Amino acid sequence: MKNGFAVFSAVLVALGASWLGFVVAPIMQLGTAKQVTVLNSSDTYPLQRTGNATRGLQVYRANGCAACHTEQVRQDNVICNVFVTSLGKNSNAVWKITSDIFSKNQKLAGQSALRKLVFDLSRQMDEFGSHVWEVSKNDADADADKITAAGGKVEIHIVPIGADISRGWGIRQSVAADYLYDYPVQLGSLRAGPDLSNIGARDPDLNWQLVHLYAPQALVKGSAMPPFRFLFEIRKINTGDAPSPDALQFPKDFASPAGCEVVPKPEAKQLASYLLSLRQDAPLYEAPFTPVMAKP
Amino acid sequence: MNSAENNLVCTAKIDASCRVPLLALFGGSALWLVIGLVLALLASLTFHAPKMFAQCPYATYGHLAPAANDLLVYGFAIPAALGVVLWIFARLSRAELVMPLVPAVAANLWHLGVFIGLATILCGGSSGFTWLEFPRASAMLLGVSFVLIAISAIATFGQRKERVLYPSHWFLLAALLWFPWIYSTANLFLVTTWPVRGMAQAVINWWFANNLVFVWLALVGVSVAFYFLPKIAGRPLQSRLYALFVFWTLILFGTWAGIPQGAPVPAWLPTTSAFASLLLIIPFVAIAVIVIKTVCGADVICKGGPFCYLKFGMAAFILSGLMLIAEACPQYSRVLEFTWFGAAQTQLQILGFFAIVICGAIYEILPRVMGFGLPFPKFVRLQHWLFMLGIVLWAGSLAVGGVEQGMKLANPQTAFADSTSIALIFLRAGTTGLFVLLLGSLLFAANIFVMTIKWKLALFKSVIAYIKSPLETSSVTASLRRDQGEVKP
Questions:
Q1: Which end of chain B is more exposed for a tag (fewer CB within 10 A), N or C?
Q2: pLDDT digit string (tens) for B191-219?
Q3: Is 3.30.1390.10 the CATH classification of the domain at A77-161?
Q4: In sequence order, what DSSP letters do the residues of B268-301 get, joined into one string?
Q5: Which residues of A are less than 8 Å from B419 in CB distance?
Q6: What whole-number distance in Å separates Cα of residue B169 and Cα of residue A79?
Q7: Which of B178, B196, B247 sits opposite A31 (nearest CB)?
């Protein structure tokens, strides 16, 4: 490298390559993304937020909530639950095949973490009377083929697994499609507070969200979250006046200001409706899962 | 006059030509360093007393933490780096700084931009993108002033007597081209009326953050070390070829790092990033070899002086680089992502590596540029110890706390509250570390401000003396003659 031009060319090559790779290519691949269709349905996903929730995203940005909260669920793997729903006409043969596969899985159970999980869950599910085991996608397909060939009927349920999902923070991993309408996209990089990508599905109660913003420690003992009191107004209740319909309903053991009511300012309502709009619960091509019907 | 004396006079002239712009750049950056650390301290106090700022919309953690980070990078690191770049270019070219008033004015514009940005973030006007929180107005100011300073630096570079480039030249020229490119790209795609859609925003944001905090700071910090280490050690850089190797590998691999492993994007993005980050081990080893070979065997005792600053800074750089690689390994990233570990790596890069290297360089440069010694030479040593202690406490406890927090998070059987409470224990040590760092930065600011005041007083006195002094006889007679000439037809 003898002169300035050589350095200039080096920068052009090195930074130019990564500019093409990490700026231009993502714009072409992700920046042109459109709504997608939900698996096994004609619904489109994601839906545009309502006005209040859209404004709430800006309140979330302005207060820097993403400094402590992430909006992203990760998953480790996907497992398949195989349900034998009917033994069919040739029930003895199907039963034999089913129990062979089942005992084979039980033998393999000790060998890997995935199999072990299979074993525990399947024993538990067995008590419900259906024959269930959990295996990887390929094994599940092979098992299902054997049973259907003998005349039985089989259902395969896809279940994502991982620490975030076990915590109940989501049903499946987050994918690029979840953030299509966000500006700015606020994934966050620190979990000083819990993940919020499905907070709307986890705590759908508006009053809970507002009280939590006003006094987090009243609802979550030992929470490290700072209260956002400036988003609320404390009004004196004059005798004879009807209380505001928006006033917060506090839990019984919380010492709310005496003779006053706490009313959310518009920003607080917007922020809460943004939080309620956060739910990543549609099965997609790149993040499949089988929706579980509520047990009767 | 023999050639050695001639050289001495020439060097003094070169140093003097940098005086005004360097004071403007260093003075502002010292102020922002102090304010940035105060804000960081307040932010971390929020964790110990959550209700502290409940009534104050300006001081939520989400305002203070990004504001503190931006002040450390845009307020302190970049202007201080630019000052050092101007001086190194002038010295390497053996020419006086070209257009010294341009960077002096640009420095003030830059600091104005940072001030507007800070005020906007505290009022809730942050753009919501990491490292790009500043609004458009201050982004424009920063961009224009950077280009102005770069023009002056490159013009000085063009004046060089020795045509062959020194290794520091490569890194610094690259850094001058780097910033306008990444900053304009990121701002034009993200902080505009027509931003790109969806997750493309996040990817561009990661690309920018990595190119700014890792690559840019590394380019400048490493080249400053490559300039001063041989100078202080009194032996040549070991060797030019290794340095060329470092330059190429650093810019080729470094630019592709920075996409988190669990990111909800198509898999090729994090995979490429992980591979590039792993390859970064090559420049890190090469840098370590260069530093060790240059420093070892030198007959210099550092005693907490600038030599110590540079050595500690380079060690911190290697360590923060290894932390970057750890974050890019998929199985470690499962635990480390979304914890304090990421913050620890960034803080080690900014404060442990860059701030220390640049402070050491400034302590070397300032006495030469000003023509008189530091007002508090003992503070240099004291600041070194304070910074070392502060960094170990701040970044170290965040890193260990991050690992602990990550282990708890990865195990769904432990409650989420456990992961926060274990991190809080380490944050306490971290907050103490920040306080120690703040003390160190106050010493730095004291040296720079007292020097500026001394210089301004001396300037004022010399102006007064000039006004009061009687005119020379020759000039009086000359003006008389001219007057007579005008009177006579």
A1: C
A2: 988 899 999 999 999 999 999 999 999 99
A3: yes
A4: HHHHHHHHHHHHTHHHHHHHHHHHHHHHTT----
A5: 191
A6: 55
A7: B196
